[in-house]
């Protein structure tokens, strides 16, 4: 600025000279100064383009940091502020068939009470992916009715098993059959009634779910289920937790590398959990290989429910269903942003050598975490703009 300039003849040249001489970009004014040696002009152009390339490189570097390294995991050890959720409890009787109900249920669905039918539904009541290859051939009942029949045949479990008056107790449909669940606000999305009514409503998450009290020295839980037991069990449950700071919500899913339940993105579930995502991905693999969906999966228009032969097909591809390994990358099942993990290890089992008792009792000794990991914002959009 203030340096003499050349005098171009064209309007475009005059505009460039005006811009270069008054620009705050360092070095441009040397391009329009009079009496410059060609080498000086060449060096000025070289340095200007070099600076421009460095600026572009740094911009991409900062953008990549904002997109892929925007969060950091920090350790928090103020136990007075901890709120560790109590675990959900799933009770899955095996086999889950009440033999006393068979006659009445078969009459309800107009099924001829034969040993073949009884054997088939008893097998179906405790079926797993590993034994689907051994499914008995039975075609007297449409596969679309199997789940309703199994629901009516299930064993009875008394409500309020935890003596907490839990409003979320429910029978849910799982890949291991029908299970009774408590302390799970997401259980409703896997209930038979929710599916039959074609319900996609998202229910509010409770504001104050059951959690452990750190002011009590040690924690212990006992669970009693009324059915014949062969042993009493005491186990140790250790807990770890990762939570997410509120300011991370503003980031995209790719940036935070996790999902909140209301991020959705699944075809057969109205909310997101990693387990729901893995199950949905597994169902897609089954659809691609066996052209059906199992009776324990939510129905999709245009896709048939697997019959006995197709269940055998599923048993033949069990190794492709990532049952005991991490799901493949094409599933795109990212973790939940707020995760509490519960690890249970056996401590003591007492076998009942005499007559089995009428109730199963499990006592959990709870090891509460001493620290919690937080996913916090490290590099936000304002940080990117300030660079």
Automatic annotation (TrEMBL):
Annotated compartments: Membrane
This protein's record includes keyword Flavoprotein: no
Membrane topology of this protein: Multi-pass membrane protein
TM spans (from-to): 41-63
Domain of life: Eukaryota
Matches recorded under InterPro entries: ENaC
Keyword field contains Secreted: no
GO molecular-function terms, A-Z: ligand-gated sodium channel activity
Keyword line: Ion channel, Ion transport, Membrane, Sodium, Sodium channel, Sodium transport, Transmembrane, Transmembrane helix, Transport
Gene3D superfamilies assigned: Acid-sensing ion channel domain
One CC-aspect GO term: plasma membrane
Membership in a protein family: Belongs to the amiloride-sensitive sodium channel (TC 1.A.6) family.
Annotated protein name in UniProt: Sodium channel protein Nach
């Amino acid at each position: 600025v203030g340096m003499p300039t050349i005098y171009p003849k064209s309007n475009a040249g005059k505009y460039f000279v005006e811009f270069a001489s008054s620009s705050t970009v360092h070095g441009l004014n040397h391009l329009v100064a009079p009496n410059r040696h060609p080498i000086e002009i060449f060096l000025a152009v070289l340095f200007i383009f070099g600076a421009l390339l460095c600026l572009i490189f740094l911009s991409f570097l900062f953008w990549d940091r904002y997109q892929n390294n925007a969060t950091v995991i920090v350790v928090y050890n103020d136990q007075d502020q901890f709120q560790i959720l109590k675990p959900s409890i799933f009770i899955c009787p095996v086999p889950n068939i009440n033999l006393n109900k068979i006659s009445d249920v078969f009459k309800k669905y107009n099924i001829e009470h034969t040993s073949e039918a009884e054997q088939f539904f008893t097998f179906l009541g405790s079926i797993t992916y590993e034994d689907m290859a051994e499914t008995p051939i039975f075609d007297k009942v449409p596969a679309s009715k199997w789940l309703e029949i199994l629901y009516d045949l299930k064993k009875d479990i008394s409500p309020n098993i935890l003596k907490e008056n839990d409003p979320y107790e429910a029978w849910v449909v799982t890949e291991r059959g029908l299970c009774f669940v408590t302390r799970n606000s997401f259980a409703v999305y896997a209930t038979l009634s929710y599916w039959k009514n074609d319900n996609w409503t998202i229910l509010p998450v409770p504001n104050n779910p059951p959690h452990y009290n750190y002011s009590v020295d040690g924690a212990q839980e006992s669970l009693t289920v009324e059915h014949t037991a062969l042993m009493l069990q005491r186990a140790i449950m250790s807990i770890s937790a990762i939570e997410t700071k509120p300011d991370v919500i503003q980031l995209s899913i790719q940036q935070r590398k996790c999902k909140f339940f209301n991020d959705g993105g699944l075809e057969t579930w109205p909310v997101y959990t990693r387990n729901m995502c893995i199950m949905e991905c597994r169902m897609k693999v089954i659809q691609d290989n066996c052209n059906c969906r199992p009776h324990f999966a939510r129905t999709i228009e245009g896709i048939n429910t697997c019959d006995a032969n197709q269940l055998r097909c599923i048993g033949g591809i069990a190794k492709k269903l990532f049952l005991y390994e991490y799901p493949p990358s094409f599933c795109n099942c990212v973790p939940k942003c707020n995760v509490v993990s519960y690890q249970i290890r056996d401590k003591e089992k007492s076998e009942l050598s005499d007559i089995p008792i009428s109730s199963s009792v499990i006592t959990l000794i709870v090891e509460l975490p001493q620290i919690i990991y937080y996913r916090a914002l490290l590099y936000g959009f304002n940080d990117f703009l300030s660079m």
